[in-house]
Amino acid sequence: MNDMTARPESPTKVPKLSVKELSKRFHVSGGGLLGGEARYVHAVSDVSFDLERHTTVGIVGESGCGKSTTARLVMHLINPDSGRIALDGELVATDSASLKRFRRNVQMVFQDSSASLNPRLTIEQSIMFGVVVHGASKAEARERSHYLLGRVGLDPALFAGRYPHELSGGQRQRVNIARALAVQPKVVIFDEAVSALDKSIEAQVLNLLNELREEFELSYIFISHDLQVVRYVSDTVMVMYLGQMVEYGQVEDVYNDPQHPYTQALLSSMLSVDPDERTDAAPIQGDPPSPLDLPSGCCFSPRCPHAADICRSLSPKINSTRSSRVACHLVDPAAGHPGRAR
Ligand code: SF4
Hints:
Blueprint: E1 17-31, E2 35-51, E3 56-60, H1 67-74, E4 82-87, E5 90-91, H2 96-105, E6 106-109, H3 123-133, H4 138-151, H5 156-159, H6 169-182, E7 187-191, H7 199-215, E8 219-223, H8 227-233, E9 236-241, E10 244-250, H9 251-256, H10 261-268, H11 309-313, E11 318-320, E12 325-327
Parallel strand pairs: 3-8, 3-9, 6-7, 7-8
Antiparallel strand pairs: 1-2, 1-4, 4-5, 9-10, 10-12, 11-12
The structure holds iron/sulfur cluster.
C-alpha cells in the first residue's frame, strides 16, 4: 500500500542528471548474412552515476576506457543499447522533440576548439546561431552573444566580428564555452576541453569554468585524462576501466583513500607535490586487454597485483566502502577473496 502521508521528494534532492545502467557495444565483424560468430566491442557496460545540482562529476581513466563514449551516449549522439537518463527527475525520451529539448539543456564542449566552430561564421554569428534556432530574435541573440563574450574574457568590440582562424586555441575554447552557455543549459559536458591548452591558459579556463558554474547555476560532467585537473574541478569522480565504472565517490575521498587496485595504480602515477599524498601502490603492469577479447571475471585481473581465482571467474559487483563505491572482490565481504583481510 502506498504511504499517502509520505511527502514527495524535494526537487532539490533529485539529481540534476541521473544515468542508470548505460551500456553500448559496437558490432565489429561476423553474424548476419556474413555468417560466422558476431564480434562486439563492449564500449560502455552498466555505467551509473548521479550528477547533483551545481556540482561537477569528473570522469577519469586511461585512453579508450569509455569516458568519451559515455558522454556521447548521455548526449544521445550515439544511441545506447540500454540504460536510462533522467534530467531533473524526468526520463529523457528519444523522440526528436524530446531530444531537441534535452540537447538545449545539456551542452557539450569538445577538445578540438576549431572543429566546433564554422570557419565561415564570425564569432558573434557562431554564438548567436543556437540562440536563434531556439526561438530568440536576432537582436536578443546578438545581445546575449556580446554579454557572454565579455563574460568569458573576450571583449566583444574586438572579437565579435573575427573568424575562428584569427583566434588562439585558448580564445577559441572560450568562444565554445560562450556558445554552449548561449542557450542557457542546465548541464555542460566538457570532453577533454582543456587538454590541448597551454598550462597557464588551462588554469585560467578552469577558474573561469568554476566561476560560470556558480553564476549560471550549472552542473558539469568533466572528462579528462589529467588526474590533477579532475581533482581541481570536481566534487565527485568516476574512475573507468575498459568501459566499466570501477570506483565512484567524493573526489577527496577517492584521491586520499582509493579502494580499487586500478584507482590506486592510476593515482600512484600522479606525482603529488605533497609527499604525504603520494600513494605506495605499484604502477599499472602491462597493457589493457583487447576490448574484443575481454578476460572472464574482473576485467582488471590480468594487470591486478591482488588477482585471485575468484577474480578470474566472477565479475565483481559494485559495493559501498567507507569512502566510495567500488567494483572489486577485495571490498566485498561475501566474495571470499583471500586477500580481503589485508
Ligand atoms: Fe583485482 Fe580481483 Fe579486485 Fe579485480 S576483483 S581489481 S582482479 S582484486
